[in-house]
Amino acid sequence: LLALTEMSSPSLKTGAYILIGVGALTMLMGFLGCLGAVNEIRCLLGLYFTCLMIILLTQIAAALVIYFQKETLKVELADIVVDLIEKYDPSDEDRRNLQDAWDYVQTQITCCGWTGAKEWENNEILRNKSNTEYPCSCSNRSKDLVGGRGFCKLEDPVNGTATYADWPVHEQGCMDGVEQWLKDNLGIILGVCTGVAVIELLGMILSISLCKNIHSEDYTKVPKS
Predict the structure, then answer these.
(1) Average pLDDT over residues 183-208
(2) How confident is the model at residue 199, as a pLDDT?
(3) What residue numbers bound the domain in which 26 lies?
(4) In terms of domains, do 55 and 117 share one?
(5) Cα angle at 16 between 5 and 112, to 5 degrees?
(6) Which parts of the chain span the membrane according to its record (predicted)?
(7) How far apart are CA 187 and CA 224, in angstroms?
(8) Is residue 29 part of a domain?
(9) Which residue blocks in 110-185 are alpha helix, DSSP H?
(10) Residue in 8, 11, 17 with CA at minimum distance from that of residue 84
(11) What is the pLDDT of the chain when averaged over all its residues?
(12) What pTM was estimated for this model as a whole?
């Protein structure tokens, strides 16, 4: 997330910071919930319930934002990826994590570029070498995927120059690949999200139940006049 926010749009930065905040809140929430349950402290259990409710509402809000702003997010993500491709440099250690992440996406989804391999022709290094090299992570040949990053040399380029059409790379752009992956795994994604929401609801119900039990016990301990 931090690598992504270095060059991302305001929307993606906000989303990344929200996820980081939710993660920190989840850790704090778990600690407070355990402490409150073990020591039977009502205020901590109430705080645990509140944190769970905030997280659940945040997840619902995030899902709605993604659904209604998906086209805007797609455009912003496209700008980020295109800029990354144009400035991709295997020797740049400052951007290595981000570049490695993109190499991983291209390798796993078997895609090249955001909309296609042609975008790689705008890379500064490849342009200076007359496109006689190509991104290894885009390759459809297993021997090029051993390293998984950087550029591979094209065999026997005509007149020392080439175009993306001469590269042994995947034709599918990663935008289409990601969309297809989401469609293929939509059931799993919805199942996981539903499972997480059910667990959070059960935690909220359990915390309320414990609070009521503690209240009942305190009431029975009060001496009658």
Answers:
(1) 83
(2) 82
(3) 9-70
(4) no
(5) 60
(6) 16-38, 45-68, 188-211
(7) 58
(8) yes
(9) 124-128, 174-184
(10) 8
(11) 80
(12) 0.65
